[in-house]
Design a protein that fits this description.
It is built from three helices and six strands; from the N terminus they run ββααβαβββ. With about 110 residues, the chain is of the alpha+beta class.
Length: about 110
């Protein structure tokens, strides 16, 4: 179960929904990170491992309109709750993130 509580940003890119992670989600992300670190073709640094759990809303080419987008979003109620149905691993292709592999979760 995901609880989104507010919009946030990292400087002027990206804008995201902040997730209030449950203990189950923190445990799941820890286990996933441990498993992914074993793959030779994926590298992590401390910043990657300690990342803020979030859902990106906008990221590329928003700097020129950041303030306008931000002012619109902060007026919105960002209190949302969803069930987590899958985990997707993304990879960057050019300027876009695309789904590399998706794993459905048992309900």
């Amino acid at each position: 179960n995901l609880h989104f509580k507010n919009f946030g940003s990292f400087s002027y890119r990206p804008i995201f929904l902040d997730i209030a992670p449950s203990q189950e989600m923190l445990s799941l992300t820890d286990k996933l990170t441990i498993s992914l670190k074993k793959l030779p073709w994926i590298s992590f640094n401390d910043q990657d491992i300690n990342k803020k759990i979030h859902a990106t809303v906008a990221t590329f080419d928003i700097q020129s309109k950041f303030q306008e987008i931000w002012e619109f979003l902060v007026k919105k109620n960002a209190e949302l709750e969803f069930d987590l149905g899958n985990i997707a691993i993304l990879k960057k292709e050019g300027n876009k993130w695309v789904v590399f592999k998706e794993f459905p979760l048992k309900s």
